[in-house]
Fold this protein.
Amino acid sequence: MTDPTPSADARRWLADFGAALARQDLTAATALFGDDAYWRDLVAFTWNIRTQEGPAAIREMLAARLADTAPTDFALDGEATAADGITDAWFTFETRVARGRGHLRLKNGQAWTLLTTMVELKGFEEKKGPRRIKGAEHGVHPGRKTWLERRQEEQATLGYTEQPYVVIIGGGQGGIMLAARLRRLGVPTIVVERNEKPGDSWRKRYKSLCLHDPVWYDHLPYLPFPDDWPVFAPKDKIGDWLEMYAKVMELNYWGSTTAKKASFDEATGEWTVVVDRAGQEVVLRPKQLVFALGVSGYANVPKIAGAETFLGEQHHSSRHPGPEGYQGKKVVVLGSNNSAHDICAAMVEQGVDVTMVQRSSTHIAPSDSLMELALGGLYSEQAVKNGIDHHTADLVFASVPYRIMHTFHIPVYEEMKKRDADLYARLEKAGFMLDFGDDGSGLFMKYLRRGSGYYIDVGASELVANGSIKLKSRVNIERINPRSVTLSDGTELPADLIVYATGYGSMNQFLADLVSPEVADRVGKVWGLGSGTTKDPGPWEGELRNMWKPTNQANLWIHGGNLHQSRHYSQFLSLQLKARYEGLDTPVYGQAPVHHLR
Amino acid sequence: MTDPTPSADARRWLADFGAALARQDLTAATALFGDDAYWRDLVAFTWNIRTQEGPAAIREMLAARLADTAPTDFALDGEATAADGITDAWFTFETRVARGRGHLRLKNGQAWTLLTTMVELKGFEEKKGPRRIKGAEHGVHPGRKTWLERRQEEQATLGYTEQPYVVIIGGGQGGIMLAARLRRLGVPTIVVERNEKPGDSWRKRYKSLCLHDPVWYDHLPYLPFPDDWPVFAPKDKIGDWLEMYAKVMELNYWGSTTAKKASFDEATGEWTVVVDRAGQEVVLRPKQLVFALGVSGYANVPKIAGAETFLGEQHHSSRHPGPEGYQGKKVVVLGSNNSAHDICAAMVEQGVDVTMVQRSSTHIAPSDSLMELALGGLYSEQAVKNGIDHHTADLVFASVPYRIMHTFHIPVYEEMKKRDADLYARLEKAGFMLDFGDDGSGLFMKYLRRGSGYYIDVGASELVANGSIKLKSRVNIERINPRSVTLSDGTELPADLIVYATGYGSMNQFLADLVSPEVADRVGKVWGLGSGTTKDPGPWEGELRNMWKPTNQANLWIHGGNLHQSRHYSQFLSLQLKARYEGLDTPVYGQAPVHHLR
């Protein structure tokens, strides 16, 4: 008898699982999971984005969803691998209406983590590969329209005499990526963007801005960056790419268009969205409305006494133009996270006197270390060489339950502490308040929990450590005077410019402005996991609040995140929208209740 | 003793070959080739594009080039395969200055075909993958310029205060692809194009135009089309792609710029190129000048008696706007190849009375059959599924010597004759003159030999067969009258529009106009193989005349071909230009003499 192999183990588990599900034996199916098991489902079973934690929750989900989902054909894909007692396997499966891909981690023969994802809807597949359209049509077709004529007709009628099924408010990378997916699925969609052209939201940022995530993490769907793309793309290069992408993906992109008001009619199941398109009011009537205005979208500007008396300039970091013209002036930057560091470093480079006012601790993650230690296995040149492209990496990332994700990350940051000990020591010596997240789990967990509180160091930390960027820490700005600011320790700093690098608020504040306060409250706080850590109050959600899945406001969705998330989760949001467009039944399991309003 | 395997055979041959070359043993090296062997070299050994046919020619080339090339490290890449007595192997190798990739076919232990290609120059590799630039630069760099600032500076100075190394005349897909390669190699280049924007040369064609080659054949370098691109892309979609490609590839593309005159100064090794840039005269002084004006570039318009008396419209097919506005008119199309068929079919679709005047036979290749029988193994969904991407396909294509290429193709067209027998029979019944090339080798050989004489049928042949497109064959237009044409058989056809679908002339006629008749004659006829077949007079050249390689005019080059050729051969032309840019020694072996002037 041959020794069991990882693949044999995985095949056996999948066979047992498939069989138990086929005969609707919930007890047998649940018994295949360990006591500390997690089943994360992206749409395929739950028509939701939801992690079932523990056998009881798994059983409950199956009780509600098994019959309707009718899963079949669980099959190992490739060979499974084993390391440190964990067997790792990819598999495919089908449901009544879809085809799926999944990932499995076995511990002692039982499932520890299971990921099921919807890949495509049967009968509504993207027209790609062997299904791609022909283009040239044989024969005589009187009245035939060329591609250009059809495109021009679409651009003239959609939103006017024909209504889109989906309107996406916000034409940054999130809106653009979702629109590309919907286009490929044949769902009529309009993107509204207040800036003139795709990419402008990047072009208008301060001039030194580059992406903070490395290229392998950043690809857009369908058209990866070429292999000579810089590791950290400069903002204007990204702007050009987005402009190009929106064009060749044939998006219906309405630039210079501002959404003014949106309201939902429960009876007709239709939104009325009033927009100003280059000065003209247009009323759109989509069935589905998506907000893609950015995790870092709704600027937070603290109200500080005396702000109205200030004689200099003051603006939020999102409106900061860069250091030009401030030579000889005194600049005060309130905040100590990513934008604050970028802005201060650019000032120093232009010889401008700048002080960073740090109110609370910041997690500093040196870029090289982050790339190597945190991302390297999945998103790097080496990963690509090892056969891990970003599609695979995205799924590996998605397969780690949020509940235990921090345990995967803590060792990474332990290592980073050692590797960059010198920098950290000098930062603390300079008075900078450092942290590694409440539980030492570092950058990505901070990002998921609160969307803030870190800086991916590409050089500014050295300037803080060596004093080039002046620092006042453990203080806030208590009062603003005509030509200075008074800190909470009594110090007065002369100031000609105040930059509020003070972050962003929950995205549902956009809803309050654009729809109504009631709807904003109905939807509730956006982002965060309910971890009970700083700025992420419990109870535990298990998934990011309100992202890429049904909200408590019918037909209202929220899309966004970093480039990786916008890329990967646009797949699942587009499938949920396509299913509704085609009139498929989409019974949502486990709609998350709202615990916080902001 | 184990049976020899294909890989073992290939390894042994490569080892023997490498060893013979290393000890400069020409006899031993030559003995490794069969009597009917071919060694095609793309730059690596010969700094040329040249096929050495037979052992004597191979020995001669080695005698001249072996010492300087200093080839080493011949290594099998992957596993070799064997079928029908032929062993097929890929290998890598190095030379003193470059890294290369090659392909080998063994017959009875001896080389039958050998392909050696230059992949990159040592020390001058493209900055891609692990070599890609960082983008964000750490630390303080006073006076640092952003990507945008450097780009804007380049656009303001190149061609004015800084001279490019290369000027490419012609900004269609050929010029664009070559410029993209040169950009990645860091060779300062300007592309001049008379139309306003990249892609306009496509946009301005008749509206029904789609690509005739299927998508897998058409990818541009570095950025393949997405997997939902139509099989046959409509002209405007290609136009948009080219426009965006030129932008994201950061080309220095001067639209609305017409080249007026160019002259070469032997003493300085520099060209003077006078251009009109949007009304302003600019003098460019590159070292290298590339003409990329199209195999189908220099329109042929026959001089027919009475043409000046014609009261209707007349234009070459390249200027044909489409069928709109010709309802109720009589249209005569002179010619029976690709453009003629497209134009006539579009007329029929609009209900316009149109007659095709066929002077000589045409090879009709139904598109589906062509895709399946001729291209399917290399450029198709199936090929991709079999692991053959376009990079591999390009090299397989390149590995077949032109001398014997027709033997590979004849069976394909034998099959096509059978498969489409019904259509061919009905075409002949309608009076259409058919051929399959002089030797039955079909479309691609006709294309290589004469660049014309065929139609890739996407529906127009049915219209000829059923009489919807009226046909007069075995005639020419003898005389043009004010409202009609008189054919050589005496027939008179009423005409309001005459379209000269009469093809294109040798590209060196552009040289006569732009440089001088002497230089045009020095360069000689462009395209064709010297096969001695119709419109391709001998003697045998072995390669396409003057394409992608040194011409007899110093520092003058010609680029172009179909999308596959423009893509693949831009690699080798860009390397030849880069080597000269870096001052490397590039002794050209076997410069082809000129046998024909046009």
Observations:
- Chain A is about 30% helix and 25% strand.
- Chain A has a mean pLDDT of 95.
- Chain A touches chain B through 62 residues (CB under 8 Å).
